Amino acid sequence: MRSSTDPDHFFQTTHSLAESERKSLKSENKNGNPVRIPSKILSTIADPGSPYGAVFVAESAGNVRRIAVDTGEKDVIYKGPTAPVTSIAISSDGKRLLAGCWDKTIWSWSLSDRHPLLRYRGHTDFVKCLITLKLAATDVIVSGAADASIIVWNMDSGECLHVLKGHTRGVLDIAVDPSIYEPDNVVKDGIKEAIVFSAGSDREIRRWRISLESAEQLESEKPILVHETSVYALSFDADGDLWTASADGNTKCLSRSQGFQPDTTIAHGDYVRAVALDEVGGYVVTAGRSEDVKVWDRGSGELVHVFDGHYEEVTGLAMLDQRCISVGIDGTVRVWGLKPEELRAARRKKEEDQRALAAGELTTETQLLAEGKASGLTEEEERELEELMQDDD
Asked: Using CA atoms, how far apart are residues 149 and 87, in angstroms rounded to an integer?
């Protein structure tokens, strides 16, 4: 290890210094064509107005930023919050951008001109997740927070319509059941109610029936308990089955036909923060604290490929056609191709790097990637991450 004259280094452990150097070296890699921003990224969603080329990212600096993944353009920024932004959603008409924030509120902007709109106040702790719905021709927000509550809002008026209680710890993600709520039917039939699934750090997945007039937990359905600890993410596939990501290191497919019990378990390892589905290729993508983005065969559950590039925890995934977009604490947005020829090329490249590693021909940066070294967090780094992410394990 290189010696240092930086006085701050005298207050760090040998392991901490080694870990800092590892991250510094790994940060130089160009895998996934990274777009870098000067802030930690806490989540991402695809831009519905540009489904093949852009995402929105939530920044710890308090901004929401649009990233054009092909060009790297990143100057479209929505500003206002002074605390970290945790989650993002777009209104059903595509005209409003909404963001959950550590300041316990939900911010909103005009998507086109970035002008601030309403601010929604009612949660008593960090807002962790939100989705938007249209019920009986009315735009609605459903948000979950670290205060263990779910709030249903009238998006136009800012009115709190319902407060739902049931989780005993923070609500980490929300997803709408597509079997009832289908966007085409919303426009055509004016759907009056939706079934929403919520996941929390109490390891429970709960189900709620929501309309403008009422909201209640489905009394006939007990909470779904399939993980050992926090459930970070929920995602429905085209068949209506529910995929989960958990701090217990596993992603599970909960089969609708089996009463949302697991029929597939994928052992990603370490905390799994995000799961995404490639319906065309039949792949499941997982990512989390290990820094890797892993691609799995949906049918067999077998590992297809591991993409290396991030040098901090991966916090979110989004799909743009057959490209998976990953974001992380390292402040990078990376793109991974999932078409057959792209996966073959990625596997060949990794095999070549591993052969070069064995022959001692790699640079230090590439060596770290070929060895697949994951982040070993120090106590100090874990405290920092807990402060940023408020781990609710």
From this structure: 16
- Distances from the Cα of 273 to the Cα of 141, 150, 186, 222, 361, angstroms: 23, 20, 30, 24, 34
Tokens of 190: 């004016």
Report d(CA 82, CA 390) in Å as an integer: 17
Q: What angle do CA 381, 382, 383 make, to 5 degrees?
A: 90
Task: Give the model confidence (pLDDT) of 267-299 as tens digits.
Answer: 998 899 999 999 999 999 999 999 999 999 999
Could you tell me the two tokens for 14? 């040998």
Q: Rounded to whole angstroms, how far apart are CA atoms 74 and 76?
A: 6
Strands (E), 268-339: 272-278, 283-288, 293-297, 303-307, 314-320, 323-328, 332-337
Which tens digit of pLDDT belongs to each residue from 29-75? 999 999 999 999 999 999 998 878 999 999 999 999 999 999 999 99
**Band of residue 361 on the pLDDT scale cut at 50, 70, 90:** low
Residue 274 identity: A
d(C-alpha 64, C-alpha 82), whole Å? 12
The residues, any chain, with a CB within 8 Å of residue 281's CB and separated by 6 or more, are: 322, 338, 339, 340
Q: Which residues lie closer than 8 Å to 14 by C-beta, 6 or more apart?
A: none
The DSSP letter of residue 73 is: -
| Long-range contacts, 260-268 (Cβ 8 Å, 24+) | 260/205, 260/224, 261/226, 262/226, 264/298, 264/301, 265/301, 266/296, 266/301, 268/294
CA angle 297, 226, 298 (to 5 degrees): 10
Helix (H, G, I), strand (E, B) or coil at 380: helix
Q: Which amino acid is at 305?
A: H
Q: pTM to 2 decimals?
A: 0.87
Are the C-beta atoms of residues 45 and 61 closer than 8 Å to each other?
Answer: no
Helix (H) or strand (E) run with residue 127 in it: strand 127-135
Residue keyed to tokens 């993508």: 285
Close Cβ partners of 381 (under 8 Å, ≥ 6 residues apart): 16, 19
pLDDT of residue 1: 42
Neighbours of 199 (CB within 10 A): 28
Distances, alpha carbon 275 to alpha carbons 42, 236, 237, 315, in Å: 14, 10, 11, 10
